[in-house]
């Protein structure tokens, strides 16, 4: 019971510190912007540990962060192999193929508008299909190795990337395009020097959305068949064995990988679209 009381006051104190930092005169500094989420995350972990211990929650229902950390440290080789299989081979390869092909087809649709009338309705239909329905089919088509997981990722990221790219290509107005014509710019010069730069915020929006979809698709696809390695395989296996500490260790790996991937794309976006109002300040 003491742990529950301590967790309550820990939460109150951390909230008070966060509020003070957020409303202080130095709230816009980089140090404070980093300190607030770190403090919040540490507080959640500490409160989680104290509540589970204080309420005597069974480890098979919710393991403590310390138990998860111990399992993580003892299984680094296994977690690394699962990361390579799921993220690098499945999610990343499917992400590159899906987003790259969507970008190229968006340029083709922009050049041939009649494709938009036929392809986009089909794309909306395919995008609405549940992954639990398409993943088993793709696993049967492409086998149980990472190729089928990459295929699932391609299906998941293709149409969000396609729609965002097409939307971005329409952001330039008639006056800007007419100005390019007065400079005797052809279609490809207008595309490279006007329309693609203005479309970059939309393109990166599609890329950022696809980072999370790619990892989710690769993990879920492994539930329907995979070799004896991979995050999805490990999660489904350990749940059946009631090894919840290993399940949470895989979740930590997935969260770190997904956050780092998203952060990498967001950092690249800031460098490419530094001129856009959303990047100012």
Could you characterize the architecture of this molecule?
The chain has two domains: 2-57; 72-279, MetI-like fold. Helix content is 80%, strand content 0%. It contains eleven helices and no strands. α6 packs across α7. The mean pLDDT is 83.
- CATH class of the largest domain reads Mainly Alpha
Task: Give the integer mean of the pLDDT values.
Answer: 83
Order of helices and strands: HHHHHHHHHHH
Regions with little confidence, pLDDT below 50 for 5+ residues: none
Radius of gyration: 23 Å
Could you name the CATH homologous superfamily of the largest domain? Answer: MetI-like
What is the number of domains? 2
Second CATH tier, the architecture of the largest domain = Orthogonal Bundle
Distance between the termini: 47 Å
Instruction: Summarize the amount of helix as a percent range.
Output: over 70%
- CATH fold node name of the largest domain: MetI-like fold
- Secondary structure: number of strands: 0
Helix segment tally = 11
Strand content: under 5%
What shape does the CA trace take? flat
**How does the major sheet shape up?**
none
Structure characteristics:
single chain; 281 residues; mainly alpha; MetI-like fold; 2 domains
In short:
This protein has 281 residues and is an all-alpha fold.
Which SSEs are present, and which pair or pack?
Elements: H1 2-22, H2 30-54, H3 65-74, H4 76-111, H5 114-127, H6 131-142, H7 146-169, H8 174-182, H9 187-221, H10 231-240, H11 244-272
């Amino acid at each position: 019971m003491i742990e529950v009381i301590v967790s309550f006051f820990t939460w109150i104190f951390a909230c008070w510190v966060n509020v003070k930092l957020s409303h202080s005169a130095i709230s816009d500094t980089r140090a404070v912007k980093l300190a607030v989420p770190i403090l919040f995350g540490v507080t959640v972990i500490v409160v989680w540990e104290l509540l589970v211990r204080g309420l005597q929650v069974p480890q098979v229902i919710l393991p403590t962060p310390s138990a998860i950390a111990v399992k993580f440290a003892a299984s680094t080789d296994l977690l690394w192999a699962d990361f390579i299989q799921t993220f690098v081979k499945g999610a990343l390869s499917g992400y590159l193929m899906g987003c790259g092909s969507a970008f190229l087809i968006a340029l083709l649709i922009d050049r041939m508008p009649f494709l938009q009338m036929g392809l986009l309705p089909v794309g909306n239909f395919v995008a609405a299909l549940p992954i639990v329905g398409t993943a088993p089919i793709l696993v049967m088509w492409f086998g149980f190795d990472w190729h089928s997981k990459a295929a699932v990722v391609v299906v998941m990221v293709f149409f969000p990337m396609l729609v965002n790219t097409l939307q971005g290509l329409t952001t330039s107005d008639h006056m800007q395009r007419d100005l390019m014509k007065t400079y005797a710019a052809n279609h490809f010069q207008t595309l490279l020097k006007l329309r693609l730069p203005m479309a970059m915020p939309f393109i990166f929006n599609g890329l950022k959305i696809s980072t999370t979809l790619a990892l989710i698709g690769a993990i879920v696809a492994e539930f329907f068949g995979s070799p004896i390695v991979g995050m999805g395989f490990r999660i489904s296996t350990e749940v059946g064995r009631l090894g919840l500490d290993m399940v949470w260790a895989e979740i930590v790996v997935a969260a770190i990988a997904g956050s780092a991937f998203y952060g990498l794309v967001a950092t690249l976006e800031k460098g490419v679209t530094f001129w856009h109002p959303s990047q100012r300040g």
